């Protein structure tokens, strides 16, 4: 499709990193930016990193003009604000490019002049919310995953592309709830998703019952979504105004980040090649030792979610884990092994899966695989014998005809454990005579220049062609650097014989000077200034859904005109039934029970109503209520008494009632 870029030209590929080592490989595989958790206060509690490790990642990324964003995106207690402030300063001083923030209390602190990005946890679904966050000083905002192209365009139209970059998730696991609007984990376990510790109740199996107690669905993972994959929609997202393309996965392993980053790097490079008005957000080009394939990594199946409107098949209801890619079917079983027919190469250690007769996913490791020695055709040579690591007895319902998949491919994993990419910045090199001897001038693809001089006497070359070829060979030896020689020009009026050691020293000096020039030219991302007077918040009241968990956040919203401010759900003011999850996913729609689906169907229209349903998992019961006008579902429940006993201290209380008109906002 044709792309009409707004004034924001750069396309940024934003990759996740669980660790600095993974972040470095994300850069090597084509990321323009990497987001990573700091030592605390990141929305993935198990993906924190020491400051020294982040500093090493920053140094590597900046060599390619790639950027490092650190997540500081949990909601914070009052007693945590000072530590968060000190962390922000430490990150700024080591060169981190931006902080990803959820808690507005941070904006009331003495933060360094570091760029701020609005986390997905800020729940950006409307032009009004997006415009507000731009106007209070956020330079980049990640939109809700549930938005359509039309809604993204509306947000782009309401914001200024020269002030605020629109970011959008293009790949990875999908939270079924609007980000920041899920409290089931805290209500049931005391582990808050807004504080980085989600228990993932959405991946559990549930019985779905109607109001009469009849089972509508049995032991289905009805809140579990397939994984996001926007590979086919990148051009449309660019056209809608997205400029930062975000890959989910701060809990994912090295192989996932390498593969998925490379996959989207290639797709975005195709768009950039077709649209010269757009530009990359960092330097260098990548080459790979493998062919990227997003299906080879852990996934629950692919969906583009709501980008192109509501779809029937967005859920991973059968299993919340990855079944893998099909490999073949069982031919015969034996006491300790089985045989299957497969067109793919199997290996010892591969992970295989199948669904039993109850549609439960069964997985096992192949301890040993071999091809039985059978004369015959090539088709017969695709017969394999597999010895499961834990024997055959536990493999329920494995029989002839069972379809098998593979979710661990040892050959693929070993390929990605090795060095699998190189990233190089193109440069031009010119060798010429100068007053002191020979000069080497270098200029990289971004226009940075440097040079070095070799002052010594030279011998005349006996073989001019051979001498020049040797010079080109020595100058082009850039393997230990981040550069590659796109052009080498020899401007010598006479052929000289130059010792290899002398040319190598000249080249190294010029390259070191070029790296220094790149570093000196690098500018920090600017911190956006908030508009004055303070922009009014789109609403004058906030419920617990706004996640206000400290008094600085309360002060922020009061300063922006909010009159009624309730404390976050984690403060335990909401003790009765409450919406514990708000989601665009509709269980009634997925089960073909939506009234809109029956519109116009003779004899059915009007008989199906959006009455509540109930989710049951053991002793847990959650009520599904359907708000059909915005086409949203609320999962309703109450906080457990055991969770209340876990938390010491009185609940936070801000406003309980609306203050009198004109009254100053106070606690």
From TrEMBL:
SUPFAM superfamilies: FMN-linked oxidoreductases (SSF51395). GO terms for molecular function: peptidase activity. Keywords: Hydrolase, Protease. It comes from the Bacteria. InterPro entries: Pept_U32_collagenase, Peptidase_U32, RNA/ubiquinone_mod_enzymes. Pfam families: DUF3656, Peptidase_U32. Residues 406-518 form the Peptidase U32 collagenase domain. GO terms for biological process: proteolysis. The keyword Hydrolase applies. This is Collagenase-like protease. It comes from Pseudothauera lacus.
């Amino acid at each position: 499709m044709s792309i009409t870029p707004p004034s924001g030209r750069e396309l940024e590929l934003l990759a996740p990193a669980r660790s600095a080592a993974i972040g470095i490989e994300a850069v090597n595989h084509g990321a323009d930016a990497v987001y990573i958790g700091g030592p605390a206060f990141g929305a993935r509690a198990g993906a924190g990193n020491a400051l020294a490790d982040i500093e090493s990642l920053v140094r590597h990324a900046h060599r390619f003009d790639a950027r490092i964003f650190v997540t500081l995106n949990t909601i914070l207690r009052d007693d945590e604000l000072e530590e968060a402030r000190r962390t922000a300063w430490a990150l700024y001083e080591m060169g981190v490019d931006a902080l990803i923030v959820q808690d507005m209390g941070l904006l009331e602190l003495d933060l360094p002049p570091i760029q701020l990005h609005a986390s997905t946890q800020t729940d950006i679904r409307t032009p009004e919310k997006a415009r507000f966050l731009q106007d209070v000083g956020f330079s980049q905002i990640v939109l809700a995953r549930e938005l359509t192209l039309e809604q993204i365009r509306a947000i782009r139209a309401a914001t200024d592309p020269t002030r605020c970059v629109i970011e959008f998730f293009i790949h990875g696991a999908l939270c079924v709830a609007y980000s920041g609007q899920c409290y089931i984990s805290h209500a049931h376990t005391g582990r808050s998703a807004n504080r980085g510790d989600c228990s993932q109740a959405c991946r559990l199996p549930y019985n779905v019952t109607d109001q009469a107690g009849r089972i509508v669905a049995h032991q289905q993972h009805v809140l579990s979504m397939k994984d996001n994959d926007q590979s086919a929609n990148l051009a449309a997202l660019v056209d809608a105004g997205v400029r930062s393309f975000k890959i989910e996965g701060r809990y994912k392993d090295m192989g996932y980040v390498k593969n998925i980053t490379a996959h989207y790097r290639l797709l975005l490079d195709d768009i950039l090649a077709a649209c010269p008005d757009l530009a990359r957000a960092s330097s260098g080009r990548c080459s790979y030792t493998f062919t990227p394939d997003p299906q080879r990594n852990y996934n629950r199946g692919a969906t583009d979610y709501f980008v192109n409107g509501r779809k029937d098949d967005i859920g991973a209801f059968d299993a919340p884990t990855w079944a893998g890619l099909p490999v073949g079917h069982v031919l015969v079983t034996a006491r300790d092994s089985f045989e299957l027919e497969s067109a793919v190469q199997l290996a010892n250690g591969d992970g295989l899966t199948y669904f039993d007769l109850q549609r439960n996913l069964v997985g096992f490791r192949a301890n040993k695989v071999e091809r039985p020695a059978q004369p015959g055709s090539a088709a017969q040579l695709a017969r394999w014998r597999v010895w499961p690591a834990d024997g055959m007895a536990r493999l329920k319902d494995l029989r002839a005809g069972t379809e098998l998949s593979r979710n661990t491919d040892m050959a693929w994993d070993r390929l990605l454990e090795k060095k699998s990419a190189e990233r190089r910045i193109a440069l031009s090199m010119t060798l010429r005579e100068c007053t002191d001897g020979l000069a080497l001038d270098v200029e990289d693809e971004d226009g940075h220049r440097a040079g070095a001089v070799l002052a010594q006497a030279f011998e005349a070359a006996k073989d001019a062609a051979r001498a020049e070829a040797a010079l080109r060979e020595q100058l082009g030896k850039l393997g230990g650097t981040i550069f590659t020689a796109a052009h080498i020009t020899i401007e010598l009026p006479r052929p000289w014989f130059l010792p290899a050691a002398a040319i190598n020293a000249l080249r190294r000096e010029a390259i070191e000077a070029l790296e220094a020039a790149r570093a000196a030219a690098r500018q920090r991302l600017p911190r956006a200034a908030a508009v004055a007077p303070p922009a009014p918040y789109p609403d004058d009241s906030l419920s617990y859904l706004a996640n206000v968990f400290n008094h600085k956040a309360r002060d922020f919203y009061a300063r922006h005109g909010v009159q009624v401010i309730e404390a976050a759900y984690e403060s335990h003011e909401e003790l009765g039934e409450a919406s514990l999850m708000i989601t665009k996913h509709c269980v009634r729609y997925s089960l073909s029970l939506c009234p809109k689906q029956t519109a116009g169907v003779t004899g059915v229209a009007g008989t199906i109503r959006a009455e509540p349903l109930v989710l049951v998992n053991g002793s847990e019961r959650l009520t599904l209520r359907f708000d059909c006008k915005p086409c949203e579902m609320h999962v309703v429940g109450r906080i457990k008494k055991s969770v209340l006993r876990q938390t010491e201290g009185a609940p936070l209380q801000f406003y309980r009632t609306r203050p009198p008109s004109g009254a100053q906002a106070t606690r």
